[in-house]
Amino acid sequence: MNSLNLTLMIEEKNGNRPPPISDEFKRKKEKAAEAPERTPIKDKVLTDRELRGLDVPPIEWLIPNLLTFPSLTMIAGHPMSYKTAFATWMARRIVAGLSLFSTFDSLVPIHGSPSETFPKRKVLFVEEEMSLRQMKQRTNWMKTYDEDNLFFLVSDGFKLNNEECLADLKNYVRENKIDCVFFDPFSSVSGLKDENDNTLMAELMDSIRHTLIQTEDSPCSVVFIHHPAKGEKGDAIRGAGDLLGKMDQAIVLDPKNKGADGILVKWVKYRDIADRPDDFWIDLRETDDPIEKEFAFMRLDEKEEETEKKDRVEDQMIKTIKEGKVLGLERQQIADLVGLSNTGKKFRRLYEIDDS
Predict the structure, then answer these.
(1) pTM of the full predicted structure?
(2) Alpha carbon 18 to chain centroid distance?
(3) Are 140 and 88 contacting, i.e. CB atoms less than 8 angstroms apart?
(4) How far, in Å, CA of 118 to CA of 94, rounded?
(5) How does the average pLDDT of the chain come out, rounded?
């Protein structure tokens, strides 16, 4: 029996007149009465053999090798890292059933081939940092794909720690078959007065997971846009440790590693992915459409760029070595020209390439 009901019964049996019941007490009593009976632990425990043999569905991707379904994910980044723009871009690609990028400066499309298609989804984007005017501007200049299945809730005062807000959101997700919800920024949407309180953070994350993510009738993925710790230059995430601890995936957008040429996307959490995914570079560039001047994200491959650079340098060294031999220069003189040690492995390898 519920403890609230038991307290009232004892008071009435003893003939004591209980004090006036507050509206808050009534609300809690009604909520407790509506709560379903908890399944006993003995009916849920699995042996090691049962767990190993459990038939579970394979990982389902909203974005290959980046965003699983259902899951809890964080996108963090310092100011000017395009984190909100990148999150909006992800949402647009998800609703259109497209890979993360259509244009590659890369040979390895790790987040789906440009020609590959995926099931179209519905996405809700909750924005509590920018105004309607500012979000309209963002919408107008970024390339769009499916305008009917991407929904925006802007400057509504939404708070995840508010029971009415969360219940309202749950109903909307279920009724409209929403597959993914983005929240920007977490600091505003969470409603927490102290982001460093592990107890409050754990309660909020567990509530979100059991209300929105791990549900039988309407599971969905949740993505938070967040900020790194104040004053930190690395990948430290602001707030209580339980925030990152509860995430299934987490990435940090770092604009300082490459300046104006792009932004480094770094992995800091990848619970649903077997091996650590490679970090990758992105850039926001104008499309080739001559009529509609739109912007779209593309992927840059730093490894490919570095390899090409090294190949060009080695080609020049080989050319210099060849010319030195034609001129009759000594081996040491040629090594000095290319800036390598006469006895080093690299110089010997390049010197022998020309001889072969």
Answers:
(1) 0.71
(2) 52
(3) no
(4) 8
(5) 80
